[in-house]
Input
Amino acid sequence: MGAYFPIFTDISHCRILVVGAGNIATRRAEVLADFDADVQVVAPEGTQHMEELERAARVTWHHRRFAESDLDGVWMVVTATDDAELNRAVAAACRKRRIPVNHAGDKAQSDFYFPGIAREGNVVIGVTASGSDHKLARKVTDGVRRWLERLLQQDKQG
Output
């Protein structure tokens, strides 16, 4: 398999479902909220940071287990729970409905990869190693983020 094609699209106001509220789900929900998505979270419990996102009205958290009806009206799904069977069931239900899904624990069940993101204002750079090396993608993302910050600071200084 080759590299993945990057695509940038406006997700503001798109309903995006995040199944799970652990560390990975929380990070992804926060990034999606940063792009003004209508982030719906389904999980009985989760991180303190997810609670903070809910209190700040950045996400809507349904404190219960996933039900297939949660997919109604959803544009995209991220499933990131510690329950492999639930993640598989969510991915399968998304495929039946032709809803793009990212399965955080199994790239073979993902329609897209969640990129590392370097962002300064409206400049957005997405990084992926096409699902093959998450540590490398994180290292490159961190480097691009630092480079972008320096570049834009230099630009402001003239």
Helices lie at 23-34, 48-55, 84-97, 134-157. The radius of gyration is 16 Å. The chain has a mean pLDDT of 92.
